[in-house]
Design brief:
Layout (H helix, E strand, L loop, with lengths): L11 H6 L5 H13 L5 H12 L3 H8 L10 H13 L3 H14 L4 H13 L3 H8 L12 H16 L5 E16 L3 H5 L6 E16 L4 E14 L7 E14 L2 E15 L2 E17 L2 E13 L10 E14 L4 E13 L8 E13 L4 E21 L7 E22 L2 E14 L6 E13 L1
Antiparallel strand pairs: 1-2, 1-14, 2-3, 3-4, 4-5, 5-6, 6-7, 7-8, 8-9, 9-10, 10-11, 11-12, 12-13, 13-14
Helix pairs in contact: 3-4, 3-5, 4-5, 5-6, 5-7, 6-7, 7-8, 7-9, 8-9
Length: 452
């Protein structure tokens, strides 16, 4: 940032004596330039203090004389944006904060404030992309508006409360029904058209701790439990955790860390997942984000009848998120590919690839929803004896090929004060040339969720 140097003052008599008739207008121009200088440190310091005290009108009064320059500093533009945001002028705030990031793309606080400006304008998709250049929150609810509300609360804690440690928590409870649909596999096992009522509960949360140089520590934990009211049906429990270090740089955020999961599989059998991951995402512009990542995971059945299913996975992914309908909706697409190896499964190792798509949308001020689809193809490398795909009394030697599908949708009614009502439906289909692997189920449930 360049500062002008004040010329040395001279008396009118001296100026006249030296016959410098241009000195008076020159002094006037220099004084005007100094007064309009947008990087006046004293005024910025005063305005920053006023904003910290949430005295936004006073801060704007201090800053407004400097707002006419064509090339403000990133700090001035940011403070003008914060002042406008505090005064309820979200569109003006968006313009100033965008200018601040044009001048200093790695300005973390400006990204968060810009996310708040988008949020208050009702541009939820753009708000999420701006927040995600800084925050790494896992286990967020599947709908766009709820995600942005959680991000905005964390951003407000940081910007207005000065907190380096921010986070969120949630609790969920509900009731639903699980139905096993007829397929060749379920018919062969005698389990077709089974219907179970279940009750579910879930608790968890996430934290983000700001470190110097735009680094942060991130962590999350999530526990889920499902109880079936049919005798001899297993009750599911699942504990997941994730810890990472991340860094915001310009319009990007990169994270690397560890994750784990412990799942109860019935008959005193557990499944453990653990591994390493790296993830990168980049905000191309206000409406688009791209991402890339990978993970190395071990899925282990320590003991029991499922022990032979233990295997490791190396997988990579690329993704794209696009804002729609003036920020009232968003569409995302993610492709993944990898390899399952180091397994004792009879069908051997397998190549995997697949695709995930999500559409989030807002219907009214209190109602939003989502639709998603997931597909994965598993191609195994060992040939072995299976039931014949079309005749159960025959066998055939083949290499197993699976196509796995999930399609789901849900609505969210915002009840206020962090509470929401969430009806959802999920259809699952496992399709394979090995008859016993074929499976299908439909689940529908209603949850009551509170975020805090």
């Amino acid at each position: 940032m360049r500062h002008l140097t004040r010329p040395q003052e001279q008396s009118p008599t001296a100026a006249k004596g030296r016959n410098w008739p241009w000195i008076v207008p020159a002094l006037a121009l220099a004084q005007a330039a100094w007064a309009a200088q947008p990087t006046n440190g004293a005024d910025l310091a005063v305005a920053e203090t006023l904003i910290a005290q949430q005295r936004y009108d006073d801060a704007y009064g201090v800053l407004s004389p400097h707002a006419t320059g064509e090339t403000p500093s990133a700090q001035l533009a940011y403070l003008l944006g914060r002042a406008a945001l505090g005064r309820g002028q979200a569109e003006q705030a968006r313009e100033w904060l965008t200018r601040s990031l044009d001048l200093q793309p790695d300005f973390v606080d400006a990204h968060l404030a810009l996310g708040l400006a988008y949020y208050r304008l009702g541009m939820f998709a753009e708000a999420r992309l701006s927040f995600e250049t800084v925050f790494r929150f896992d286990n967020l609810p599947p709908d766009l508006e709820s995600q942005v509300r959680i991000y905005s609360q964390a951003a407000t804690q940081h910007l207005e409360g000065g907190q380096r440690l921010v986070g969120f928590g949630y609790a969920v409870m509900g009731i639903g029904q699980y139905r096993v649909n007829p397929t060749k596999g379920t018919n062969a096992l005698g389990g077709n058209d089974r219907r179970d009522t279940f009750y579910n509960a879930r608790v968890g949360g996430g934290l983000n701790y700001e470190l110097p140089d735009n680094y942060a520590l991130d962590g999350s934990v999530d526990y889920r439990f499902r109880y079936y009211d049919i005798p001899d049906t297993r009750n599911d429990s699942d504990l997941r955790w994730r810890a990472s270090i991340s860094r915001a740089e310009n319009e990007a955020n990169v994270a690397a860390g560890l994750f784990g999961r412990v799942s109860y599989r019935g008959e005193s059998t557990y499944r453990n997942d653990y591994g390493l991951f790296v993830d990168y995402r980049y905000r191309l512009d206000a409406d688009n984000q791209i991402s890339a990542g990978g993970e190395l995971r071990r899925r282990r059945y320590p003991e029991g009848r499922l022990r032979q299913r233990t295997f490791s996975t190396a997988v990579a992914n690329v993704g794209w998120v696009h804002a729609l309908a003036d920020g009232q909706a968003s569409f995302s697409l993610k492709a993944h590919a990898g390899y399952n190896f180091a397994t004792a499964r009879p069908d051997g190792d397998s190549m995997v690839y697949g695709l995930t798509g999500n559409l989030d949308f807002t219907l009214t001020e209190t109602v939003s929803g989502f639709v998603f689809g997931w597909w994965e193809h598993d191609s195994f490398d060992a040939e072995r004896i299976h039931f014949h795909p079309d005749a159960l009394d025959q066998t055939v030697s083949l290499r197993r090929q699976d196509n796995l599908y999930e399609v789901g949708a849900g609505l969210v009614w915002d009840l206020g004060q962090g509470w929401s009502l969430r009806p959802e439906i999920l259809f699952t289909r496992d399709q394979s040339n090995a008859v016993a692997i074929n499976y299908s189920a439909t689940e529908a449930w209603v949850n009551l969720r509170v975020d805090f």
